[in-house]
Amino acid sequence: MISASSLPTFRHHLLLLLAMMVLAGLPLRAQLTLDECHRLAEQHYPLVRQTDLIRQTEALTLANLQKGWLPQITASAQATLQSDVAQWPDALTQMLRATGQTVPQGMARDQYKLALNLDQRLYDGGHIRSQKAVAQADAHVQQQEMAVQLYALRQRVDNLFFGILLVDEQLDNNTLLQTLLADNVRQLTAAVQAGIAVESHVITLQAERVKAEQTALSLRAQRHSLQRLLAAFIGRSESEVQRLECPKPAAVSRLEIHRPELALFDARAALLDRRDQLLHTTLRPSVSAFAQGWYGYPGLNLFNDMYRRRWSVNALVGVRAVWNLSAFYTYRNDRARLAAARRQNEVAREVFRFNQTLQATQEDEEILRLRTLLRSDDTLIDLCRKVRETTAARLLHGTADAHALLQDLTREDQARVARSAHHLQLLQALYRLRNTLNHE
């Protein structure tokens, strides 16, 4: 039986229990990882829409090239006035007159033709096939160029991501500093009331605490700015980038380069090979079947057209072989240009490898330096803490002043800030090296 006096307490406990149950049922927002930010940035970047455009262009180009095997139909109209035409020989004309036969008028000087032509390619020396291979290789080059640009986003995302983590570490250190200052103010106030310390020391520590609070405000503003930039970069709301997961150190065992730029150089080399194959096809003859039909004057029967100047329907079919010998004029120079382009591509590849290897070596040395600093940071923080605690104890006994304690607090805070910076700089250096080499 619950008494009336204990009813308010019971209600309070019941409401508290219900609130805890509701909160427990709400899912916590997951922390955003660095790899997920990379993926979201690539998906949100406007350039990614070019992927479908490249595929569509490639498909349309291949479809158009394939239609080169369809019959090619052309229509034409022609009217000519000729300076000379075919006529009956004078001797034959005299013979016809002597026998009393009708002498033909001969061909008219004005001639007309309405024609329909049809050509069916039978053999093109592999020209269309080579053109399709060039189109596919060119699309692959465009895709690799886009992959290189998207890969460059990683470093920009890393700078924002680690910038936010560094500000968070600085805020944690600032909170610790404010806590230490508050504890010392409280202890020193008690010492002033006991007549051991002077009030000016309390005021000095309170002023330093206000400075720490101002620093915290500045850090929060800086974090909000970085948070907005990262949210805009990955296409998410600011609340979704509120909690970031500190990444684990990236492991890079060997300094081997696997960057998308190398795939781009390979794609360009393949494109040059396809163009070389296309160039070979220009030296080969082509064979096609053709048909032509026309309505006009004269027709195929010239003798009949000399007697009667009437329009007639005519047609012919056949097979045609064409060999463009003028292609040999520029063949050698065109191949030399392709060879020069291959050498340029290989030189660019070697320059890229050299620069990336040099950069990876520098980043590896930076990682070693930061690891060495981190090993000494913990020792330095521990020593600064002991000095600060000693000075605080002396201050309570009146054998030290507030300025000495502030100096010790500042040194300890700087040591903690330096360790946080070194820790995140090491993480960022490891991921920068991973990006330089593209080690997943």
Helix content: 55-70%
Largest sheet report: 4 strands, antiparallel
Assembly type: single chain
The CATH architecture comes to Up-down Bundle
Distance between the termini: 66 Å
Shape: rod-shaped
Number of strands: 4
Unreliable residue runs: 1-16, 19-28
Going across the major beta sheet, what is the strand order? 1-2-3-4
Instruction: State the CATH topology.
Output: Outer membrane efflux proteins (OEP)
**H/I helix tally:** 11
Strand content: 5-15%
Question: How many structural domains in the coordinates?
Answer: 1
Provide the CATH superfamily: Outer membrane efflux proteins (OEP)
Order of helices and strands: HHHEHEHHHHEHEHH
CATH class: Mainly Alpha
Q: How much is the radius of gyration in Å?
A: 44 Å
Q: Which structural class should the secondary elements be placed in?
A: alpha+beta
Rounded mean pLDDT score: 86
Task: Report on the architecture of this protein.
This protein has 440 residues and is an alpha+beta fold. It has one domain (35-80, 125-283, 333-437): Outer membrane efflux proteins (OEP) (Up-down Bundle), CATH 1.20.1600. It has eleven helices and four strands. It has helices spanning 7-25, 34-44, 50-66, 90-98, 127-151, 153-193, 199-234, 260-281, 302-307, 327-396, 402-437, and strands spanning 72-81, 110-123, 286-297, 312-322. A four-stranded antiparallel beta sheet has the order 1-2-3-4, with no helix packed on it. α3 runs antiparallel to α5 (127-151), α6 runs antiparallel to α7 and α10 (327-396) packs antiparallel against α11. It is rod-shaped, with a radius of gyration of 44 Å. Residues 1-16 and 19-28 have low confidence and may be disordered.
